[in-house]
Write a structure and sequence with these properties.
Layout (H helix, E strand, L loop, with lengths): L1 E2 L14 E2 L22 E3 L2 E7 L11 E9 L4 E8 L6 E3 L6 E6 L5 E5 L2 E7 L1 E10 L6 E12 L2 E13 L7 H11 L4 E2 L10 E8 L6 E7 L8 E5 L10 E6 L3 E7 L13 E7 L5 E6 L2
Parallel strand pairs: 1-2, 1-13, 14-21
Antiparallel strand pairs: 3-4, 4-5, 5-11, 6-10, 7-12, 8-11, 9-10, 12-13, 15-16, 16-19, 17-20, 18-19, 20-21
Length: 296
């Protein structure tokens, strides 16, 4: 796999990376009428991007506005989740030019493990919508979104992409039912935030153990999924840009229990993990969840 210059990687794999230069693309800002349900597409190398609206706010975000950052990719190309895996660059959202925004939060749909000859990454093929939940500074008035989006599109090479988009959000109504349905579908894919003590939550964590002694420090995780669920997987995030390798599945047991292992010899200093609050994202065809767990 080839990467372009100025492409920040959280950790370079041992096999090395060669560099090749590609131009960036930048879309021009366009202000739309409030009746529109999407901004114009911004086209780039093997990808397009736009802003959309129209979904009804989920119960957890009632009385707020919902928009979405819609990214499409040509067949076989991928982009990344907030933790990209062995190598890659997560999307960057700059909303600094927006107005009538008191608070804004980008939500992350459940990603997939993307395996190829170069390693394991975490992200999305073909298409993704990142839902955006907005609290207006003045309720009842339009919100003008101004987004400078930076992301990466990768196949045999990785190309950094930029798109500038402007869009006015006036409510949850969309003149285009397809756009509203698309955004609502990706809202449903955002993992639910649950407590580790929530016995009814599935998927959930059963146990997390950190082993620091010996020559092979490791993290062992037992997760519980719906027994017949497909696509069961687990992704882990540590605070303060601490690097953790992607978890590997090592066994499955009756009752939907799956054990994962993280090789801490490939991580940053394992001893600093003790006492840290770690975020686990569990995904499956039967539902997705996010759980925070303190390593003791």
């Amino acid at each position: 796999m080839k990467f372009v210059p100025n492409f920040r990687l959280p950790r370079l794999p041992s096999w090395g990376i060669s560099l090749v230069f590609f131009s960036l693309f930048t879309g021009h800002s366009v202000t739309l009428a409030s009746a529109e349900s999407a901004s114009p597409w911004v086209k780039g190398f093997h990808t397009t991007a736009r802003l959309i609206s129209g979904a009804k706010s989920p119960e957890a975000y009632k009385d707020r506005l919902v928009a979405g950052v819609h990214v499409t990719l040509e067949k076989g190309w991928k982009t990344y989740w907030r933790i990209p895996g062995d190598a890659g660059v997560p999307p960057h959202f700059d909303w600094s030019g927006s107005s009538n925004v008191k608070d804004l939060k980008v939500l992350w749909p459940a990603p997939k493990r993307l395996q190829d000859e170069y390693g394991t990454s975490i992200g999305y093929y073909d298409e993704v919508v990142f839902p955006v939940v907005i609290v207006p500074a003045k309720r009842g008035e339009p919100v003008d979104l101004n987004l400078k989006l930076g992301y990466a599109v990768c196949k045999d090479i990785c190309i950094p992409a930029e798109a500038t988009m402007r869009f006015q959000v006036v409510g949850t109504h969309s003149s285009n039912p397809n756009t509203g349905a698309l955004l609502a579908g990706y809202l449903d894919q955002v993992p639910a935030q649950v407590s580790k003590t929530d016995a009814g939550a599935v998927p959930k964590l059963r146990d997390v153990k950190i082993q620091l002694e010996g020559e092979k420090p490791e993290l062992l995780i037992d997760a519980v999924f719906a027994e017949k669920a497909a696509g069961r997987d687990l992704f882990i995030e540590a605070p303060n840009d601490y690097y953790l390798p992607v978890a590997e599945k090592i066994s499955e047991e009756p009752g939907g229990i799956v054990r994962y292992r993280v090789d801490l010899t490939q991580a940053d200093d394992p001893k600093t993990l003790r006492g840290k609050l770690i975020r686990f994202t569990l995904v499956s065809s039967a539902g997705h969840s996010e759980i925070e767990w303190q390593l003791n």
